[in-house]
Amino acid sequence: MNLINKEFYKTNVTLRITALWAFSEAFMGGILHGLQIPFAGLVLSFVASVCITLIALGNNKKGEILKATLLVIAVKFILSPHTPPMAYVAVLIQGAVGELLFLNRSALKPAAFILTLFSLLYSAFQHLLILTIVFGKGFWQAIDIFLNKITQSFIKDAVHYSLYIILFYVGCYLVAGIVGGILNIKIIKSVQAGNRANALLQQLNNLPPVDEAVFTNERSAKRKKWFAFIFGSLMLLMLVFSYLPFFSNSFSKSKIAELIIRAVIIVLVWNYFITPLLRLQIQKWVARYKEKNGNALQQVIALLPGIKIILQQSWQLSQQPGKWLRFKSFINNTVLLIVHHEQ
């Protein structure tokens, strides 16, 4: 059984939670994939919201959430330097919104709910915005024409399928945000009560050895691109269908080709010109940040092995039927072990 180094116990709660957030941003995507937990992106946004909430719960000083946010961005870049620049922007926006929402600590639970809802909806709208930028408005028009042609035999009137697709997509994230917000409030209540922490700590001594392979999975680079791949495949499918007579009359081959060429050009410019420039600027900022906050960075990085052990222990302790119940137990146990370990 792996034990957490005693130095881990001597650090303050805010630093440990910051380390959990940094670990989540750098490594948890691969771990969730290894544990076969679906919708890893939603989970990561939720975990970040929980970490921000816990920082607000344990520290009344203004600016602490922003300090933790910058620390997480720096650690994320050091450990995962090839992460897309927009991921750092997402962390910064989430931290800034959290700082604003928790200015009034008396409204902690409503702020936690709103932050979780915002984080998940931001993720949804970011994906839709990227699609619109890459493919243009013609992409949504092409989907409408494509699906209307398929369904015209039993639906005579034109239907704005793209609008329904967007509403359904955002609706799924909205429901997830509401559920996540409620769960975040329950975690606050659990932390404030602290009545399960002692029982969890007593169970640690009886745990069997951990399967390290599950927790060492790195996030696949290919998996990051699934979103673009699916819609790119859809565009190619529509290009093939544009050669069919019933489709080409409404949406020409040249229009589909224009959308694809536009997407290829934007992706190439983004990947080979804009991204390297943004990454260079982030690298310069991280270098300056390390000079001023090197001690805090070293402390957080030193805590990461302990965070990994706690995650391993929490997963073993979370023996619940069904993935959803086990995930809830996993998150709750992780938070309790990190926050209440001094007991």
In terms of DSSP E residues, the strand content is under 5%
Oligomer: single chain
- Rg computed from alpha carbons, rounded to a whole number of angstroms: 23 Å
Mean pLDDT: 79
State the end-to-end distance. Answer: 20 Å
Biggest sheet overview: none
Please work out how many helical segments DSSP would assign: 14
* Number of β-strand runs: 0
Low-pLDDT runs: 217-224
- Binned, the helix content reads over 70%
Number of domains: 1
Order of helices and strands: HHHHHHHHHHHHHH
Q: Which class best fits the helix and strand makeup?
A: mainly alpha
What structural keywords apply?
globular, 14 helices, 343 residues, mainly alpha
Task: Describe this protein's structure.
It is built from 14 helices and no strands. About 2% of the residues have low confidence. With 343 residues, the chain is an all-alpha fold. The protein starts with 5 loop residues before the first helix and ends with a helix. It has one domain. Helices cover 78% and strands 0% of the residues.
